[in-house]
Request: fold
Amino acid sequence: MIAFDTDVFTEILAGNPSYSQRAATIPREEQSVAIVVIEEILRGRLNAIRRAEAGKSPLTIEEAYGWLAQSIRDFQRVRVLPHSAIAEAQFQEWRSQKIRVPTHDLRIAAICVAERAKLVSRNRRDFEAIPGLDVEFW
Reply:
């Protein structure tokens, strides 16, 4: 199974040809994202709505809500990997080892290890530092 990190998944959703073409070579049933990826995207969409409401965004409020609606539709087309007790135990183990990686990235990695999924990311700096993570950089 392949799990896309937020950076790669957003490029695929945006239709970036180099990412979309590579993703298309992976069978749909083998594609997934960690629940933390969904959280990160939703936070961004909700922030865009708040900024549009405050008049601090180049997006209109209609566009910001449109992005949120499209994201919800996109999430329904991909397998979402849960943050299980096994993933949390792995996360806590890495924390006790003082692995210095941002919390969300460490949680994504823990979910991938728990689910035996290969993570696909562009974030070499953080994910290379995590022992036992199967990761491919695009």
About this structure: The beta strands are 2-4, 31-34, 79-81, 118-121, 135-137. The chain has one domain: 2-137. The chain is about 55% helix and 10% strand. The mean pLDDT is 97.
